[in-house]
Specification:
The chain is of the alpha+beta class and about 550 residues long. About 40% of the residues lie in helices and about 15% in strands. The two termini are about 30 Å apart.
Length: about 550
């Protein structure tokens, strides 16, 4: 008798996500495996899905050559506050009317003096309300190291011993029950080419625990009033734990939307604007994602596919405009919360709110990531579940049936509903394809002098005036010094950000008319034409993209 194949999932590196992933696996009849060590043996144990708790590199020293991994290479570093600010800022510079949803942010300590100058300019303009600011450590999480302040002199640069950002406090936040709150939107990036982005229809709202007042010197220190972080507010004596999804200090997104609807707010428009914010943010990250994938998974070698669940933290103001505060590469999938069960005793207690949000999210994400043959089998299982006999005899299957309900899906695909509206924003992804093309197949992380000269020669940059070979060499030296400090043999080469700066300078010198975006596109077209069209450009870029498509 032929044995049925079973989806195999490795959750040995899943950390706190393991519990909910195992729950979903059990309900779908999937098998847990643990892949031990890399081996050339043909009978080496493998998995269809590898669920990591931190990063793509969690599998080291195991070499994954197939299946799907729930992390993209470099994502953890990419969404750290400083790098995310750089990514968003370059899009703001190119598309100032499209990227208005990221608060004004400064890199500390590098931009400390610029920060002081910008604040002085704000004060000269005579704003009615004195601005407030939030200092966040670059690698901080769970509210650790956050400082609220209004007086620039309160920020002592000598006391800052690690990289951080200063973000302008968003004035006039939307309130519910006189409390400030933010939204945790769960975003699933299933593929980058073609781009597939899903948003979970259920998310989380985190509430402050003290009634809101406009920031002032007298209250700026009150973190339970101004900061929505759960990790901070759970320490508040007024934090409300509840099993009711629409009450308390942590609520479901849908319950907040319902409350806003009752109050007459246009929730449909808010949801649309959040969808757009998410799509534009992921598009801004695509160039770096492509470079990281090529660096870690060189083209032409057996490799897994990637997907990832991201946590977008969004604050909405009184005008119902959403702002992106930050992105969490590893949003908590824990199904419990800390609670004082008796005087001085803190215990982890099951949270119905967390389960209502996270279990459908993980279930649907697993179904998206599993092999096609498994999806067909799950669909057949759904049809059986809908029979009255099975539905009455198995509560687990009844829950599984609800996750297949096509009338109320747990996830919504957002990018494919209108990709043409975003196409013009993807010009930098084309620049990253060129960078990857000349980076080569050796897993290099920086483009060296030889590669940069090859880029100039193969793309015929010095043809037609405006540039000379000596100018190209000088540009490489200048960019190398800017991004790597003093030149030395061990620390040379252009990372992608440096190559992008160089590309923009070349575009501005070579093409005299048009906007910066138009000049970049003209230089991309020029390079592609001189690389003999798509066939020449393909190289590692096309192989990587074709491999990703073939894994779907």
């Amino acid at each position: 008798r032929r044995q049925h194949r079973t989806v195999k999932v490795d959750v040995s590196k899943a950390k706190s996500s393991a519990i909910v992933v195992r729950m979903c696996m059990k309900e779908m009849g999937w098998k847990e495996v643990k892949v031990e060590l890399a081996s050339q043996s043909s009978n080496q144990k493998t998995a269809d899905i590898y669920w990591h708790g931190v990063s793509f590199g969690d599998s080291s020293p195991v070499t994954i050559t197939q299946g799907m991994v729930n992390k993209y290479p470099g994502m953890l570093e990419m969404v750290r506050k400083a790098q995310l600010t750089r990514i968003m800022r370059r899009m703001e510079n190119l598309f100032p009317d499209e990227y208005t949803f990221y608060p004004r942010t400064w890199l500390i300590p590098d931009e400390y003096h610029r920060f002081r100058e910008d604040v002085a300019d704000m004060q000269k303009r005579g704003s009615r309300h004195k601005p407030a600011f939030i200092l966040k450590p670059d690698e901080g999480s769970q509210g650790e190291g956050i400082i609220l302040f209004m007086n620039v002199d309160d920020l002592e640069i000598s006391a800052i011993t690690r990289s951080a950002v200063v973000q302008e406090y968003i004035p006039r936040p939307l309130l519910l029950e006189r409390l400030k709150f933010d939204l945790r939107i769960y975003v699933i990036v299933l593929a980058t080419n073609p781009l597939k982005i899903y948003i979970a229809n259920e998310g989380m709202a985190r509430f402050c625990t003290i009634s809101y007042q406009r920031p002032a010197v007298s209250n700026i220190h009150r973190v339970f009033m101004h900061l929505t972080n759960y990790s901070l507010n759970k320490r508040s004596s007024t934090y409300v734990h509840t099993d009711v999804l629409s009450r308390g200090s942590k609520r479901t997104l849908s319950s907040v939307y319902s409350a806003l609807n009752v109050r007459g707010y246009d929730v449909s428009t808010l949801q649309t604007n959040i969808d757009i914010l998410v799509c534009k943010t992921i598009i801004a990250m695509l160039p770096d994602m492509g470079v990281e994938q090529h660096t870690v998974i060189p083209a032409g070698k057996p490799a897994p596919g990637c997907f990832q669940v991201l946590g977008f933290d969004i604050l909405v103001n009184e005008d119902l405009k959403p702002f992106l505060l930050e992105i969490n590469a590893n949003p908590s999938m824990s199904l419990d919360h800390e609670m004082e069960t008796s005087a001085g005793v803190i215990e982890a207690v099951h949270s119905p709110v967390d389960e209502a949000i996270k279990k459908p999210l993980i279930m649907e994400t697993l179904k998206l990531a599993c092999p096609k043959w498994a999806r067909k089998r799950l669909k057949r299982r759904m049809e059986k579940v809908r029979s009255a006999e099975l539905a009455q005899s198995d509560d687990n299957l009844r829950y599984l049936d609800s996750t297949f309900d096509t009338d109320e899906p747990a996830l919504t695909e957002v990018y494919q509903r209108g990709p043409e509206r975003y196409e013009h924003l993807k010009v930098l992804e084309k620049v990253s394809d060129l960078y990857i093309r000349f980076l080569g197949n050796r897993g290099l992380t920086k483009l060296g002098a030889t590669g940069f000269r090859t880029f100039s020669r193969r793309c015929n940059l010095c043809h037609g005036g405006g540039l000379k070979t000596a100018a190209i060499d000088l540009l490489y030296i200048e960019m190398n010094r800017k991004w790597n400090g003093q030149l030395n043999e061990m620390n040379t080469g252009l990372p992608f950000d440096a190559f992008l700066d160089s590309f923009i300078i070349i575009a501005q010198r070579k093409f005299k008319s048009g906007t910066t975006v138009q000049k970049i596109q003209s230089l991309v077209d020029h390079c592609q034409d001189n690389l003999s069209g798509a066939a020449e450009l393909a190289g590692p870029v096309r192989k990587r993209k074709e491999a990703e498509v073939s894994r779907e």
